[in-house]
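Thread: "does anyone have the structure for this chain?"

Original post by V.I.:
We have the sequence but no experimental structure in hand. Need at least a predicted one for the grant figures.
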Amino acid sequence: MGADPGIVRPPRHRIVAAVFPVTSRVLPWPGFRAGNAEIHVAVTMHCHSDAMQPEPERCGVCIVRVVRQATGLVITLTQRTDVDDASTQTQRTLTDVAETVEAVRDFILGLEHRIEDLTGDVGVTAFRQTRRVAGFGSVAAVGKSLEMVLNARFSASEPIAGEHARAQLIQTEDLDPGSHFLVRPTVSILLYRVDFNKTMRASWSAVGATDGNAHLPVDLHYLLTAWADNANHEHRLIGRAMQILEELGSLSGTLLHPDGDWAQHEAVQLYLEDVATDDLMRTFESLACDFRLSIPYIARVVIVSTATGTAQPDVLTYVRGIRPELAPDDTRAGR
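Reply from O.Q.:
Generated one for you, tokens below.
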């Protein structure tokens, strides 16, 4: 049956939606690596009632945030059916990828049902993976890691036969002979200086511009001092400590104390620092003890990061339909 030429029907509009492949074994997005990470996916809907309208109004937004944790995936789904109306915003926390994809699909179909004359498209960001790095606790965690590693290795191979030597993380007040904090034989670990890393600061600033967080790369300067009853025992303590740290070269994985909230592939390099004798002597002048046999070590690069930033992914959008343009002034003048 032919259409009645006297009836003008509105044009049919359709939504071009993104389809997310789903498997039960792996994440659906390519390039996702195992470990602590986040993936940000933004889906925006644009709609207008007139196909000739040049700039469609944004009528909805759906943001999917995927975080891999030790217990599995934690997916936060934030949806707003009206960009200008905050009261339409809802947020859900899911753990199943398939359920999340279905929720995004329902959101898109719900907008199509609510706004019958919906035109435009769906914009989907390129998937951005943000490596999660340590927070402010990383500074304390490095010192605990050094203490933990040295004590474990001292137990495996005693630097002084028949003596229970250990490593102790200290503060400057503990160096006062009257404090009786240090139990000999021991190697004290003193963090005496923290500097930002000049080489990596610009690179991590660029990362912050991407993920919305602040990242401060720092170097931690430690002073390892031997405490024993005679010179031979002090020399053995220093020699064993240097052997352990040189063998390791870096702290990573289970060698990093968990208080740092480390990323899975994060590592801290350990170097024997080149400090002039005069500088080392001046350091002891400011401490509450006389000069003792010590070795300076530097731990780099430790990243102190925030976790409250919001990534702003670039949304790739295209608009379907005809765009009206203004005629030149001379054309309008001749009408």
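V.I.: this helps a lot. Confidence is low (pLDDT under 50) at residues 1-56, 115-131.
O.Q.: and The chain has two domains: 37-132+311-322, 138-305.
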